[in-house]
Each structure stands twice: as C-alpha cells, then as structure tokens.
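FW: tagging you since you asked about this chain on Friday. Here's the raw sequence from the shared folder, copied in full. Didn't touch anything.
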Amino acid sequence: MNVEDFDFHLPEELIAQTPLEHRSESRLMVLDKERGSIEHYRFKNIVEFLNEGDCLVLNDTRVLPARLFGQKQGTGANIEVLLLKQEDGDQWETLVKPAKRVRVGTEIVFGDGKLKATCIGLKDHGGRILEFQYEGIFYEVLDELGEMPLPPYIRERLDEQDRYQTVFARERGSAAAPTAGLHFTEELLEELKHKGVHIAFITLHVGLGTFRPVSVDNIEEHDMHAEFYQVSEGTARLLNEVKGNGGRIITVGTTSTRTLETIASKHGEFVEENGWTNIFIYPGYEFKGIDGLITNFHLPKSTLIMLVSALAGRENVLHAYETAVNEQYRFFSFGDAMFIK
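HL: got it, structure written out here
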C-alpha cells in the first residue's frame, strides 16, 4: 500500500491555529463505518451516540511544558531545548537548536540560573543528552520556565497553556497532547456518566514521533516510533466486563486506540500492563479491542489517517475528509472531531 493512497488536498487556512473559546462547541462529524454515511453535529452532541453500558476510554497523559529557552554559558548564545524523554534521574534526551552550538560539556542556563543543564551525550538529528541541575522539584521549575511544545503547524502563540491539556490530564510525560480529548469538559463527562456510560482511563505518553512524516513509499516499510503506555488492573477489568456484557469500547484518540490494540493483540483480552508500543495500524489490520473511535482530523499521508482508514475504510475516510474540507471543518490539534461508529 502506497503512502500516496492517503493523500488529500487541505487548504492551509483550515489548519486551526487557536482553540475555540468553549471546548465542546467544536464541530462533530459522525461517520458510520459500515454504511459510509456522514452526519454533522456539535461535539456536545456526542452524548446522543453513546449508550448505557458503553465504555469511553480516555488517555490521561499530561503534556510537559517541555520547551525551554536558555543561553549558552560563556557566550550568551540563545539555545532552544525540547525535552523528549527522561533517561535516568535528571538526565533527559532532548532536541536542541541550534545543535551545532551544543557539544559535550556545553552548559546552558535557563531563567537566570534557576535551571542549568550540561550536555553529556550526542544523538542523531540534533538530539542531545542533557543533565539538569536545580533546587527544589524539577517539574515545578519546569512549570515556571517551560512552554507548551505546540506542533510545528501551529504558529500562533497559545495564551492559555491549559488549553493544550485535557481536563482529565494527570500523568506527566507527553511531548504532545492527546488532542481528541481536548473537546471534553467536566460537565460533558458528568452527563455521560449520568447516562450510564463507563469512563475508563489509560496512559500513553505521546512522543514527537507522532508528527514524523512517513518517508517511505510503501507504508509497510515505515519504522513506527515507540511510546510508553500503562493500563491499570481496574481499567482492564472494566473493559473486559463491558465487552462481556455486549457494550462497546469507544476510544478517544489514536493514542488510546494503539494502547488497547497493543494489549488485546498480545493477550486476546485486556490485562494490567505497562511497556512500550510501536504498533502500526493501517488498512488490513483486524481490530481486536475497540468498537468505535473519537478522533480529530489528521495530516495527509500520516500514520494517524492510516489508522483511521483501517477502522472505517480508506475510501470512506477520504470521502469524509473531502466533505470536511468542503464544509470548512477545522483540522489538526485545535480542530474539530470525528466519531467513527
């Protein structure tokens, strides 16, 4: 299957640059994966499409304010640092710009010395291993000095940092938000619970690899990035009960989907587990865990649109995306949503 099979025309002005004032007022396209039919609603109408006994699965990862701006010790040169992954203690894998200014032994100062870093290792493509020095609690220092690592296609400054967090974000560790969850409000979740819909949480820390383009023609040759996931014993038990009682498992976002499909593929049921997944879901894949998906509108030729196409059918998805463009839906992280039922 060729990467060009997942291309579509997207006018640049449809890429949402800022979040809506009210989260649940975004638009909602409902796509029937069997019939290919399309309906248009507001996101707050999602309650109408979930039934008593269904289970909504949310990713409770919390985005780190992982973008830091500092100065090189000695020269004062401006250095931008993006935290990618905690390696060991205060050592982090990072991306730095400009990378050529940061060699092993280079020291970087942030926030008038509240945070310092020393480069102790080199990685490919501008990657550096930095060891941080600070007083107090690292994440509190990061909250004070860091900025949200918005995706490269968002060029507007985000005034309210919390708008790039879901209202249920708890577990620190993501380099990007699980954006399908951004549409939910506390009130909407309460409304769903009142209807008898189960709410379950998993954790998958989103890596920047989620934005990495597919650079091969044959998608089966694509090397998928790995991300850390965690599913509790309580969540696994609830999901198995819902399945056993004939309810539907509805994942919110491709991250929740990849987590559940990783576990269901390995065990044939849901179990308590944590680990790393590099599962790559594209058409031809047989879903073993989920029944429906709430997701945003994704980039052309991305692994995310391939996952959605695996669930709903490539032709159905490309038709839905063409409709979304014609109807002026908002795309990507701060954009509108689709429910595949």
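FW: The first strand starts at residue 27 and ends at 31.
HL: agreed, and The chain has two domains: 3-63+161-340, 67-145.
FW: great, closing this out.
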